[in-house]
Amino acid sequence: MNAIILSALLGVVMMFSGIIIKEKSALKYIAAAGLLLLLIANLMHTYGIYQVRIDTHGLLDFQKFGLFFNSIVFAATLVYVLLSGKDIENTGLNVAEYFALIFFVLCGVSILSAYNGLLMLFLGIEILSIPLYILTGADKRNMKSNEAALKYFLMGSFSTGIMLMGIALVYGATGSFGMTPPPVNPVTGLYQGSFLEVAGLLLLFVSMAFKVSAAPFHFWTPDVYDGAPSVFTSFMATIVKAAGFIAFIRLFAGHTTILGPTWKIILSFVIIATLLIGNITAVFQQSVKRMLAYSSIAQAGFMLFALYSNNDLTQEGILLYTVAYSLATIGIFAVLIKMKDYTYDGFNGLAKKQPVLAFGATVCLLSLAGIPSTAGFFAKYYMLAATIKEGGAFWLVIVAVLFAAVSAYYYFRVIQAMYFKDGDAETHGPISNGFKYALLLLSALIVLVGIMPSVVLNWLYF
Amino acid sequence: MIPVLLILIPLLTGLLSFLIKEEKTVKGWALLTSLVTLVVAVTGCWFYPAAQLTYTTSWLPGLGADFAVGMDGMGKMLCLLTAISFPVVFVATQKNTYKNAGRFYGLMLLTQAGLTGVFLAQDALLFYFFWELALIPVYFLCSIWGGEKRIAVTFKFFVYTFLGSLLMLAGILFVYFHTADQSFAIKSFYQVKLSGAQQGLAFWLFFLAFAIKMPVFPFHTWQPDAYEQSPTAVTMILSGVMVKMGVFALVRWLLPVFPQAASDSAHVIIILSVIGMLYASLIAIRQDDLKRLIAYSSIAHIGLMCAAVFANNKTGMEGVMIQMFNHGVNVIGLWIVADAIEQQLGTRKFSELGGLAQKAPALAILLMVMALANIALPLTNAFIGEFLMFNGLFQYNVWIAAVACISIILAAVYTLNMVQKIFYGNTVPATANATDINQNVQFTLVLLALLVIVLGVYPQPIISLTTDTVHAILK
Question: What ipTM does this complex have?
Fold first, then answer.
């Protein structure tokens, strides 16, 4: 509860601080301080030191897993603000509002990590999404940004509509917004959901797949990610996506039995389609930003494995995936924003001109590709291991592994451009030393998690 | 502690090398540290009791993976080869200049750390870690300092091997979940009980990774291009040490974990290897480029090792052990000659060379020793290894061995052809003003030639070093 309330409050505070504080560059420090506060408040809740108690009649259920996920998200946002705070400032005029919207998004995340009823799921998704529509259009004078915002809004509301319909059907069938399916039939030992309920769940599946940009519901992703100001793309592609997955997993953890064997068939189809479309399309992109948009679809394909399996490795895995994927994507986007030219050629010769930037980007890309000794390796490892442990889907693991090899192609193209090709990669103005140190710290963190994933996972069992 | 030191010294000194700006300093530094590693390796091989040659510490307790390294006979032998190769390569290429030499030598030493890790790992996940880590610095080395087509060629090499290793990862996970105690430890892997079909599946996942690395026909297409385009110092490491990773992994991981599948698939793999031997030898005959010729000849030799591993008998296995070491020595020697010729004359094409023996007699003599070793003439080191391997293959199947033996004749054809075209006949414009090799090259070549002859007459040190592995594998 701490996090939900505090993040909403901080959002309001940020909004008004824009009026009081005239110095634009001070705002990011306030936001960073706010995030730190939020992180501390959440940790206090996690370890039972202090928490605000409000009776929600069981609509929210705070479990250690969700709270820990919150901490990861807040920490990642902190890293994001520290790395890219300056670029958020440069997006437009209403700086305070951007930070306020980010806090509102975090409020949505905190609800999604703790919801215990379909109603709260809906609220969480909406609180998460609406600030994002605005952030996508933050660059008001840019047509592409406007177009992306409108597209995102239309498609987003469409999927929300589908979600509502799904919720209505489930409610109609079971008479409750609850998350746990009714008890199994004592005679047959099975619970056969009614037709209405199954239809409702499928609609929910479609809308959630839309939110996490799983194929074939991914069509909005490239345009929106490409059109949105790059700083906010970074935020959307990492923190928001991870939150979507947490909600997705929570929603279906108890419901897979109702859908029966069909569930795995549908899910396998979605996983393969997502991996296929994400990876193959990313190969053909000329712009690094668009490539990253498709790669985020491809990474979603890997994260979907967390839905396929349901064991202890899954939980650890999705957390590790969130950490690894968020850190790497925030890092690579932070470098991308500094570049003048977003095409691969724009990166030519970056290693000579800005060795630190090139090195940081390389570590992030290696992590995204899943090379051992970077965080990305263990993220993928856990996803695959959880699926193998679940049994019966080894072929799916092989497919995923083949696509992981494909992904090396487009990630390494950036490395090639930076290190092996001649050219003068131009950056927006000089790069501050603070940014370089932050990037190096991020790289060190990625490698640390890659060698010792237990530094993250041990927190789960405290 | 010895195995840890063997990994740690090149790792740390490699990272330090990145900070050294002065080219001369970094060359000296790299040579010095690689010599220190060599001393440690020699100490470990002969002067330490086996009990002190393992080191285990907890790494990922939740997953059942430990940082476990240890040296058995084969590990010792390959560490020794690695530790010898690096200083030799550094001395032989001392006169070559590199842009950003600090990075070059840093990456080289990191490669050494990765390679040594592969040979010492006693834990499947750790093995996978090092397997990949050895690849990354090589990727950068070849792509930055390589020849004209370096980027595309290296990328092909990288994607190929990366694909292989990912499949192996799936295989490792598959076996891991079938181990009795959910552990990556090599002991648990050796004791895992898999049904026939399961063994077959996991076997091929592992084998693909190793086959690409060695490379075995038909997975060899990355190799000649990569060898040709890489800077020669890296090519020496690639063909001298890195391809041994594949053969090593067959013996360390494949045969003991999947004995049933290995003997079931042996026939197919041996036939593929023999096809590869003949095919590569035939192509080598047609080459006009010195580097490509050595590359194809290397495929042929590795093919024989792969076949002998799967023959799965004592003679063959002993031959593989000796030959892994000897092939490393010989092929590095050949690359040093190729590099010396290219550096001085600016070409490696036979059609543009000739009569070099008059101008560079020392080089001619030393190359002759290496060339004879490449053909596996008696009294050279390769003879013992190849003789044992053919013997092992003969015990497996007479006809296959007979066909494979053709490759010996073919080896003589292309190797002697090469010697003749470069060194004899009349001098041509390119070689008219040639001078003899410099002292560094001479020194390393003499050293390697001595190894060739000494091990050719008295191979016992290597045989006794690796007997324990041979016995353990065949039990």
Answer: 0.89
